[in-house]
């Protein structure tokens, strides 16, 4: 694939999962059947322990819960969301917002977390003005983690500067360019009886002992970038196949696997980290007005 248009955002460490359903029934059974099922259950338990999951109740010696507490946080965020345009034998260029740095506020109660971020003062004036809204909601269940995000930006600048020689040493500004991202990812914590995700993210649980877990999951995102006129500047439009395109829609779905671990030391201190790899199927659709002019499917790892 030589010509490429992509709606991108900076990769994050994302934990994802496959849907898991377990159905069980209790019946009066003969002793032989009960012994067989007990042996079978022990074998299954060994299998799950190899994966880091025992299917037992949460181990109080590993996790302490503070469900009645409301926790809050202030955090720094850097959102690298934008639109990238490429063509054969031509320099690629990106449309970027001018307020990628922000200050976030968050509240958590039991499983629910709400976060909102606001741009910091001190943005570069020569990159124009960007109006933005970034919201994130998370559900941190014992065995499942769900993250939902909504981001909207209006007002972008073109990077790098030297793509357009006609503007000299100034940035090419597009106050009409809008970009929206909505979607989420979900995580299955296989060792949820001993590993607490909430102890790291919301602090209303306490990881008493070191523990790790295998992670399975997926993600689903939709993005849209549009402008009042063509996204490719007229001065260089003859060099790019996206000439005349004023609306680009992006869709991405994927599944992945990962591992997370929390190391506890000196009783009240911990270090936590995780790593996942995700295989995505993505597609972009390019429009000129209401007319579909291009469609590009591709795989991302």
Automatic annotation (TrEMBL):
Signal peptide span: 1-28
Keywords for the protein's UniProt record, in alphabetical order: Signal
Q: This chain belongs to which protein, by name? A: DUF4421 domain-containing protein
- From which organism does this entry originate? Arachidicoccus ginsenosidivorans
């Amino acid at each position: 694939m030589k010509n490429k248009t992509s709606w991108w955002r900076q990769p994050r460490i994302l934990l994802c999962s496959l849907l898991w359903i377990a159905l069980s029934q209790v019946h009066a059974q003969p002793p032989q059947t009960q012994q067989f099922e007990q042996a079978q259950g022990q074998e299954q338990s060994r299998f799950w322990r190899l994966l880091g999951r025992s299917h037992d109740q949460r181990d109080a010696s590993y996790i302490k819960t503070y469900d009645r507490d409301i926790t809050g946080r202030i955090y720094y965020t850097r959102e690298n969301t934008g639109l990238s345009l490429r063509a054969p034998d031509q320099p690629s260029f990106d449309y970027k917002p001018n307020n990628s740095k922000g200050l976030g506020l968050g509240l958590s109660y039991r499983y629910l977390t709400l976060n909102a971020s606001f741009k910091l003062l001190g943005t570069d004036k020569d990159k124009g003005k960007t109006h933005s809204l970034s919201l994130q909601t998370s559900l941190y269940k014992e065995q499942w983690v769900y993250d939902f995000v909504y981001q909207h930006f209006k007002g972008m600048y073109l990077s790098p500067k030297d793509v357009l020689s006609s503007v000299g040493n100034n940035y090419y500004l597009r106050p009409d360019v809008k970009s929206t991202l909505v979607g989420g990812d979900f995580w299955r914590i296989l060792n949820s009886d001993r590993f607490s995700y909430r102890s790291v993210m919301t602090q209303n649980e306490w990881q008493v002992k070191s523990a790790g877990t295998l992670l399975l999951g997926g993600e689903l995102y939709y993005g849209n970038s549009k402008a009042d006129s063509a996204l490719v500047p007229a001065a260089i439009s003859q060099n790019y196949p996206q000439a005349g395109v004023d609306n680009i829609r992006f869709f991405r779905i994927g599944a992945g696997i990962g591992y997370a671990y929390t190391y506890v030391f000196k009783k009240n201190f911990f270090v936590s980290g995780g790593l996942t790899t995700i295989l995505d199927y993505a597609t972009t659709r390019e429009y000129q007005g209401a007319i579909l002019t291009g469609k590009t499917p591709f795989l991302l790892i």
